[in-house]
Design brief:
264 residues, mainly alpha, Zincin-like, 3 domains, 10 helices, extended
């Protein structure tokens, strides 16, 4: 496989609006397998790092993902290259490459790894997810008891359980939303933060179908960005939080100044 053939494969996976080149360095590198130079739109592959064409293509797709990402940003990459947006692009290209049969998923080829994966999914992801969900149920019961005895639930969380309030709120939502524990505790925490029922269900289904977390998150982020009403709602919420924070700080400073005035 030469550089021209690699470029043809990349274009067949997903064409890009900006021209690019693929260059084989003919060298071995202990630091990196490949690079993307955004200024010249050049994908550099240290081809002597690979004895397997499939692994070489994996690196090529990774670097091509940087190019596709740059194309979506008028040819410029962000200061931090490996953002959630980049990983979403990369995972999309890998899925397309697998569907077209030009790249083979190395993880699927190992029966031993597949067996271990099932253990991890069932015993650790699902069981830990179930624990978080059960934790949320018990917190809701504790909240009802706090109301019954006339105590503040927030104070109970702060001083008795001694856990962050956001963590408690998230756990309770995992139970209230009846989230599927198969996605694992970290994805459940993300889903608990999705307010819209339909979007949450769609995101959960996408995760269950094998989409990566970054792909799911960026998909819904782009939907929100293209919806003018949704964008205004988010901006309004951000402004309200900022105003609340500034008002609180203003009151604190005013009180301090009044105390200083009384002292003098």
């Amino acid at each position: 496989m030469n550089a021209d053939q690699v470029k043809e494969i990349l274009i067949s996976i997903e064409d890009s609006p900006l021209e690019f080149t693929v260059v084989f360095s003919g060298k071995n590198s202990k630091k990196v397998n490949g690079l993307y130079k955004s200024e010249s739109r050049e994908i550099l592959i240290h081809n002597r790092n690979f004895a397997d064409g499939n692994l070489l293509l994996y690196t090529a797709i990774h670097e091509y993902a940087h190019h596709v990402h740059a194309c979506s940003r008028n040819g410029k990459l962000p200061a931090r290259a490996h953002t959630s947006e980049f990983w979403a692009v990369f995972h999309r290209l890998l899925e397309k490459a697998e569907e077209k049969g030009v790249y083979h998923n190395v993880f699927a080829a190992s029966p031993e790894l597949n067996a271990l994966t099932e253990i991890i999914r069932i015993k650790y992801l699902a069981e830990n997810g179930e624990m978080v969900k059960n934790f949320g149920e018990k917190l809701l019961q504790a909240r009802d008891l706090c109301v019954k005895i006339g105590g503040r639930f927030e104070d109970y969380i702060d001083r008795i359980l001694r856990i962050p309030r956001p963590a408690a709120t998230t756990a309770m939502k995992t139970f209230q939303y009846n989230l599927n524990t198969a996605v694992g505790p970290d994805n459940m925490r993300y889903l608990a933060g999705v307010k819209d029922d339909e979007q949450r269900a769609s995101a959960e289904q996408a995760l269950l179908e094998g989409k990566s977390p970054d792909t799911v998150k960026m998909g819904f982020k782009k939907t929100a960005e293209t919806d003018p009403h949704e964008r205004l709602v988010h901006e309004k919420e951000r402004l309200e939080r900022t105003i609340e924070t500034l008002s609180k700080r203003l009151n604190e400073i005013t009180e301090e100044l009044e105390k200083d005035a009384d002292f003098f």
